[in-house]
From TrEMBL:
InterPro entries per the UniProt record, alphabetical: ClpP/crotonase-like_dom_sf, Enoyl-CoA_hydra/iso
Group of enzyme by EC: isomerase
Enzyme Commission number: 5.3.3.8
Gene Ontology biological-process entries: fatty acid beta-oxidation
Catalytic activity: a (3Z)-enoyl-CoA = a 4-saturated (2E)-enoyl-CoA; a (3E)-enoyl-CoA = a 4-saturated (2E)-enoyl-CoA
Source species of the chain: Handroanthus impetiginosus
Family in the record: Belongs to the enoyl-CoA hydratase/isomerase family.
One annotated GO molecular function: delta(3)-delta(2)-enoyl-CoA isomerase activity
Pathway stated in the Swiss-Prot or TrEMBL entry: Lipid metabolism; fatty acid beta-oxidation
Pfam families: ECH_1
GO cellular component, one term: peroxisome
Name of the protein this chain belongs to: Delta(3)-Delta(2)-enoyl-CoA isomerase
Keywords: Isomerase, Lipid metabolism
Amino acid sequence: MCTLEKRGNLFILKLTGDTKKDQEHRLNPTLIASIRSALAEAKSQAVNGSALITLSEGKFFSNGFDLRHAQAVGVKAGSTEAAKAELLRMVDLFKGVVADLLSLPMPTIAAVTGHAAAAGMILAMSHDYVMMTSSRGVMYMSELDIGMTLPDYFMALIRGKIGSGASRREVVLKAAKVGAEAAVGMGIVDSAHCSSEEVVAAAFRTAEELGKRRWSGAAYAGIRKALHPEVCGLLGLKDDVVTPSKL
């Protein structure tokens, strides 16, 4: 599950779990709905100068879609087709999380203190800034290793966020497990830090610095969407025209 805490104008979205299994933060319909609810709450309370930080408990930022959940649905239905259908349903539901982050009227920062795999990597990359620990965790698009193609909006986000063709090839056609320093070099991560505590501190510093600018949230969201037209088109997000309030 997840929690949302508000500290002044900063929102802290934390992926939580009571057990080791839960702390993989696998994206199933329940967690996806919980994240979307938290983002909706942050959006409803946003003011100029707000910012969002996403972090997680345990050694995973997120281990991607919950394949065990899909398998359980298949077992209950007595059909592998039901399992495949449930996975595709999660792929479709997760579009909403990416769309929410790309249209959120505030800067967003992911504090990645553990592994971010597959949809978990996409979750991190859907933020404006990504900080990552070099002591623990990798970025990893695992789809090739499990024999699955990538959803179109995943590929569009990857094309929009990773500028080098060689780096994109490394991530999606080699299924490389990319550490923090290499991820910085590829432009996936903004900064690498020695410990989880340093990652979180850097995320808070960035959020506070950006918040001081007190930018219009509507203008910020509109410019972000215009920066990533391909993925926003696939997600059904339209550009917003925002004019200065003092005109």
